[in-house]
TrEMBL record:
Coiled coil: none annotated. Residues 7-123 form the Response regulatory domain. SUPFAM superfamilies: CheY-like, EAL domain-like. Residues 152-406 form the EAL domain. The modification 4-aspartylphosphate is found at D56. This is cyclic-guanylate-specific phosphodiesterase. Keywords: c-di-GMP, Phosphoprotein. Gene3D superfamilies: 3.40.50.2300, EAL domain. GO terms for biological process: phosphorelay signal transduction system. One of its GO terms (molecular function) is cyclic-guanylate-specific phosphodiesterase activity. The keyword Cell inner membrane does not apply.
Amino acid sequence: MASQPATLLIVDDDPQVRKLLETLLQHEGYLTLSAGSGEEALQSVAKQPPDLILLDVMMSGMDGYEVASRLKGDEATAGIPIIMLSALSESSARVSGLETGAEEFISKPVERVELWLRVRNLLRLKARGDLAANTPGPAPRQTGMNVHDLARQDLENALRQAVERSEFSVHYQPKVEVASGRICALEALLRWERPNYGAVSPAVFVPILESLGLIVPVGRWVIDTVCQQIAEWQSGDIGPVEVSVNVSGHQLIEGDLIADIARILAQTGVAPDLLEVELTEGSLMENTQHTIASLQRLHTMGVKISIDDFGTGYSSLAYLRRFPIDTLKIDIAFIREVTTNPQDAAITRTIIELAHSLNLRVVAEGVETQAQLAFLKEAGCDQIQGYLFSRPLPVDTLKRLLLERL
Ligand code: C2E
Ligand code: MG
Ligand code: MG
């Protein structure tokens, strides 16, 4: 939390709920204001804009939807994040809340950890200025939705359906050992073929799954699928193959990633060292104590840990000492012009040296040309991944490549 504690406005017509939320949030070090009705909430915001609002949906007089619509419809208050609270569990209540422009929705009775994580994450997004882009413009109920809102909502609905109907698949991209030129591992990449539309990039839909709270079940499905696949290869002609899986920070914080992985490994009989999790620097910086503890447990289990997109996310290197890391993956941004841009070349060399001096394996991603490969070989990079060798492939096509490597 920043040195100046954030001020949260709690709006609920039930004094007991207000008291409970005040106690929970003050315990986390936040300052609280409270309002017992929608009207009172609007007055309070006009007088002293809070950093975030917790807003009950069902209140006599002006309800939470109306309060949210008004605040989001006014440029002066549209940037204040809102978490809607409701005892209604129906998804229609949730959708109506989000439709007004509220950023989050929590069901009552409120679960303590969920409450403080959602509050913390939203405050963090707001501090980074990321919310403005996500905040719909004027409230839809008043002015109609703009094209961007409609497309987003359409995508969200399609994704919810995709989860229900299991429309996802996993492709695998080979990683090649530079010294031998042979496939040494794979990266699992999630794919979604949207019906009547075509493939949608995970760079687009993964962040939406995260914001909908759906990345935890989908991420679990990915790990499940990958482990079953490793087990199948292992018992057939192909033999043991190491596979890395991208893991979102939400899976570490909201889900029970460790228990899920332990269960899947036990069920499939896959050796833990055949599985690697790829995390971005940004996701490591969330809730660091919890993250360090989780990664330590994974490491103790024998699962490998890789830092994805290394070099773009965080300016402090101190965390490299604190996390049990096995691999650094140099971000594609440095590789793209590594042979023509001396600064990218210098950064790439430095990352390779840094990794080796810390006894870490280093992988370059996005390698597309022989010249890039030659540079990386000369610089001592351990593994490469990229279109030069292979695009991510469906299992059937990949099988041939894997058999050839033997
Ligand atoms: P990432 O983990 O950094 O994955 C590497 C991305 O670079 C992949 O994009 C891959 O297809 C692409 N790539 C590989 N070689 C080349 C190349 O030579 N040139 C270029 N231009 N691109 C190359 P993809 O599959 O679209 O995935 C994008 C991102 O989505 C991933 O970046 C990862 O952050 C996320 N993602 C993918 N699958 C999952 C998943 O199962 N769970 C989570 N949480 N995130 C995922
Ligand atoms: Mg990755
Ligand atoms: Mg990457």
